[in-house]
Structures are given as structure tokens and as C-alpha cells.
Design goal:
The protein is an all-alpha fold and 192 residues long. The protein has a single domain, classed as Up-down Bundle (Rhopdopsin 7-helix transmembrane proteins). Helices cover 67% and strands 0% of the residues.
Length: 192
């Protein structure tokens, strides 16, 4: 049975039946980080090519603005994932309790989450724009201009920044001694 208040207990008390052992945990963390790098580094390259293509074509209409913004958001998402995976793989944090996956992930994933949300909101706006244009082609032909789409994308960015910043600014990691977990931690050493 899981503990009632997980903020006051360690992983062993919160989840007594582990899927894997504490000895296997550093290797699984490294495997996840390597897989993140394997997928994010090529994605950075392809999104950079996308941004270059859209900049070469020019920003003439609404859909080009949206796709360029989506490519930039995806590029920033993958860059933040690559940088986070690289530094956590080769230079891991040696903070007491940093092997607590939920705390560590939340603390390091703020930038990645923001750009992922921006990419999702941009994709939703593109889909909404295309559906409206297909449903009422003659009524909305001039409704979506380049400047209006740019204003909508800036508004989406401001709203998501406004929603995400209080969470990021108020989050704090309190390091406290947890003798049971410290003997199982990887003590901040890299596997490589």
C-alpha cells in the first residue's frame, strides 16, 4: 500500500513494490537519456532545415507564418531536450534526493514543456484556421492575414508564458537528508 503523504516519505515508502531495483536505476536513467539524445539531435537538424527553408521562401501569407513559428517552437523544444539529456547524462546533478524522478523531471523540464505547449497550441491554431477556411471559403478568405496570424501567435505565447511562469517561479527543491535513499543514489557520477 502506498503511503498517504508522499511528500514526507521516500521512494521506498511511497512505492514498496518496485518495478526495478535501485542498482538498476542509474542504468535505466542513462538509457532514457541516450534514447532522448538519439531522437532529439536529428530532430534539431531537421527543424533547423525547416526554419531555413521557410526563411528562404519568405513570410508572405498566414500559413507560412504559422508553419515558421511551429518549426521554431519544435526546434526550441528539441534543443532544450537535447541539452537537458546531454548535461544530465555526462554531468549529472549531485543534489540529495535528485534521483527522485518526479522532482528531477519537473525541475528540469520547464523550458521543454513551455515550447511543447507552444508547438501544440500553434498546431491547434493551424488546424482551426484550415477548418474554418474549408467550411466557409468565401466568407473567411481575407480573415486570416499574415499580421492577424502573427498577432494570434504572439497572444498564444504571452498566455502560455503567463500560465507557466508562476509555476516555474514558485517551484523550489528543498534538499533534505534522506539516509535510506542516499545509500541507493548514484551519487552524481556519470556512467561514462
Amino acid at each position: 500500500m502506498a503511503a498517504d503523504n508522499c511528500t514526507e516519505c521516500g521512494l521506498e515508502e511511497a512505492f514498496p513494490q518496485q518495478i526495478h531495483s535501485y542498482e538498476l536505476y542509474p542504468y535505466l536513467k542513462s538509457l532514457v537519456r541516450i534514447l532522448s539524445l538519439m531522437f532529439s539531435v536529428p530532430s534539431v537538424c531537421f527543424n533547423a532545415i525547416n526554419v531555413l527553408i521557410f526563411c528562404t521562401i519568405g513570410v508572405a501569407d498566414s500559413i507560412t507564418v504559422c508553419f515558421l513559428y511551429l518549426a521554431v517552437c519544435d526546434l526550441c523544444t528539441m534543443v532544450s531536450l537535447s541539452v537537458g539529456a546531454f548535461f544530465s547524462l555526462f554531468f549529472p546533478l549531485s543534489v540529495p534526493g535528485s534521483h527522485d524522478l518526479a522532482t528531477y523531471t519537473f525541475a528540469t523540464a520547464q523550458v521543454h514543456g513551455l515550447f511543447s505547449n507552444l508547438a501544440s497550441a500553434t498546431t491547434t491554431y493551424i488546424a482551426l484556421q484550415r477548418r474554418i477556411c474549408v467550411a466557409w471559403p468565401f466568407l473567411t478568405r481575407h480573415a486570416f492575414t499574415r499580421n492577424r496570424s502573427l498577432a494570434v501567435l504572439i497572444a498564444i505565447t504571452v498566455v502560455l508564458l503567463g500560465c507557466g511562469m508562476p509555476r516555474a517561479l514558485t517551484f523550489q527543491v528543498h534538499a533534505r537528508a534522506q539516509p535510506k535513499q542516499q545509500r541507493h543514489s548514484d551519487s552524481g557520477r556519470s556512467l561514462f
